[in-house]
Amino acid sequence: MNKNKVTVLDFAGKKEAGEKITMLTAYDYSMAKLIDSVGVDSVLVGDSLAMVALGYDSTIPVTMDEMIHHSKAVRRGVERAFLIGDMPFMSFQVSDEDAVLNAGRFVKEAGCEAVKIEGGGEVSSRVKAITGAGIPVVGHIGLTPQSVNKLGGYKVQGKDAESGKRLLEDALSLEKAGVFAVILECVPKDLARRITSKLSIPTIGIGAGEYCDGQVLVAHDIVGYFEKFVPKFVKQYANISSTIKEALTKFKEETESGAFPDDEHSF
Ligand code: KIV
User: Fold this and answer.
1) In a shared domain, residues 139 and 258
2) Cys-Cys link to 174, which of 51, 139, 188, 235 (CB 3.0-4.6 A)?
3) Which residues form the catalytic set?
4) Whole domain around residue 256: which residue ranges?
């Protein structure tokens, strides 16, 4: 085992030490290896796979088999970071038994070290059942994309006092049920600060401001590889799509003109 291997204990350790936790998504071997090589703490095989890598309009259609297939590829690229598999829609909603069996697939078949589950107090029994089987769980509240039809769109959550209070209660229920961290997606930063200060486990924000104990983003978004839309909370550190398009265009032009392949690229 890599001696700097990140484990579930490092999440609590970082919160205690006041050090920020970093997490990025990956869906394949190459991106996973790049993320791992720069020392990011955790890699999430997010169900955003559905939209970013598989071209669906929402995260709802992605299946367990697709998540496992991509998680296996990511596993092969990650040595140091803590690897988390995202439980897709309908892999845990029906029963605790389903939840344990599907979480078990992420660990046993794909080599994930934890799973993520969307939802608040209503998923407490799932969290207890999965952690009871020896699998660490990350919670995910706020904007939970699997519930987009119930939420009426991809909107900031917890904007008024009552819904903010509900989110705090959800976070506390999840902590009580045994999650080791909770993702806060698209919530006002003052609410995220309040939740972060009330929990002993770390909060990891995505569109939740600077007071969270860590940050998670979709890697394809921050390098500009997903062009369909760019959420407000995404900071683009590169524009890899235009670099790729330039290279693809040059290949096309040089092949058509006969400039490629030249002697350097022939035997
Ligand atoms: O599916 C995903 O990628 C996610 C996050 C970015 C938190 O759930």
Assistant:
1) no
2) 139
3) 185
4) 240-267
Per-chain mean pLDDT for the chain: 97
pLDDT at residue 251 is higher than 80: yes
DSSP conformation letters of the chain:
--TT---HHHHHHHHHHTPPEEEEE--SHHHHHHHHHTT-SEEEE-TTHHHHTS--SSSTT--HHHHHHHHHHHHHH-SSSEEEEEPPTTSSSS-HHHHHHHHHHHHHTT--SEEEEEBSGGGHHHHHHHHHTT--EEEEEES-GGGHHHHTSS-----SHHHHHHHHHHHHHHHHHT-SEEEEES--HHHHHHHHHH-SSPEEEESS-TTSSEEEE-HHHHTT---S---TT------HHHHHHHHHHHHHHHHHHT-SS-GGG--
Q: Which atom of ligand 1 is nearest to the CA of 48?
A: 1
Tell me the per-residue pLDDT of 20-61, one tens digit each, with 9 for 90 and over.
999 999 999 999 999 999 999 999 999 999 999 999 999 999
> Is 1 within the bounds of a domain?
no
Q: Please give all residues whose beta carbon lies within 6 A of any atom in ligand 1, as ranges.
A: 25, 44, 46-48, 86, 183, 185, 206, 216, 218
Domain identity same for 197 and 250:
no
The CA 245 to ligand 1 mean position distance, Å, reads 26
Q: Quote the number of domains for the chain.
A: 2
Please indicate, yes or no, if residue 51 is contained in any of the structural domains.
yes
User: Per-residue pLDDT tens for 169-188?
Assistant: 999 999 999 999 999 999 99
